[in-house]
Amino acid sequence: MFNIFNWLKAAIALILFVISFMGSAKDRQLYIYNWSSYIAPDTLTNFEKETGIKVVYDVFDSNEVLEGKLMAGNTGFDLVVPSDSFLDRQARVGIFAPLDKSKLPNYHNLDENLLAMLAKHDPDNRYAIPYMWLTTGIGYNVDKVKKILGEDAPVDSWDLVLNPDNLKKLSRCGVAFLDAPTEIFPTVLNYLGLDPNSQNPEDYKVATEHLSKLRPFVTYFHSSKFINDLANGDICVAIGWSGDIMQSIQAAKDANNGVNVKYYIPKEGAIAYFDVFAIPKDAENIDEAYAFLNYLMEPQVIASISNYVFYANAVKNSQPYLDERIKNDPAIYPSAETMNKLFSLQVMPPKIDKLMTRSWTKVLTDR
Ligand code: SPD
Asked: Selecting from 3.40.50.300, 3.40.190.10, 1.20.120.1200, 1.10.486.10, what CATH number does the domain 7-131+274-334 have?
């Protein structure tokens, strides 16, 4: 006979089952470390709703900062977002876990051509899922630059910011450079007609001398502050990343403040990157990391991020979900002619890395 004790036992078992189920659902967490201004406002909440996984999200604005944490180890992050050349050298010292692509049913959505390009830094696409790709170019305030440099202002060339005479004049309305030696040295080398991936210490001496001539006219070196400052008219020119400058353009339009910002990829060529997701080998929430990577490879999800952050993604069938203004903007998806002028960065030997860091500190501290 089913007496009161049996009922009680069954009820307790049911309560314990529900509690343990709630506990395990609550316990699913994922720790992500991504660039600032690099995700749509609803991406994480939508993912949380769909999977029950709680995301803890933190941001950085330079590869150097991310690399410092990765090299120190025990970051506590399950997913991080280095740029391709940084991932390359970090993978060589065993920072990442190889991807198990059988856990990524959406992997086939990635563009094979872009995967092949990325494989130069990540052979066999072993560690990295491409997130966005981008260029480092120039954002400028059309009216202020024309007012100072005239109608002939070289707004198709690095001359605008790397010619000391121009920069001196533009310093009156505010100039920002990325605080990243690995961006600025290759850019200056390329401008001076030298190999942007040079391994010759003499070339870095020449680039450092050139940078020292520019230094007095740079208002600040920072890798994210320029987004708001350009939009508000607080600076008039910035060396920055394509999507970030496009975010300034949008912010100025939204504010309807009369600030007219434009972005261009200089005719002398510019750096192109992939930023990629990878799993540190000491990550703890592996299944959750795969769930998020797979989610990002859904065409609608990644398109909604590109539509918000103004960066080009690597999911081939996301095109139908991209806003017209995104997919038709050559600053985001450059023309074939411009693509030919882009170059990617190679991993430098430690000797050159140290030289770059030392020379950068010298440029920044000598005034
Ligand atoms: N706000 C997002 C910026 C992403 C920039 N990644 C740039 C990598 C180039 N080194």
From this structure: 3.40.190.10
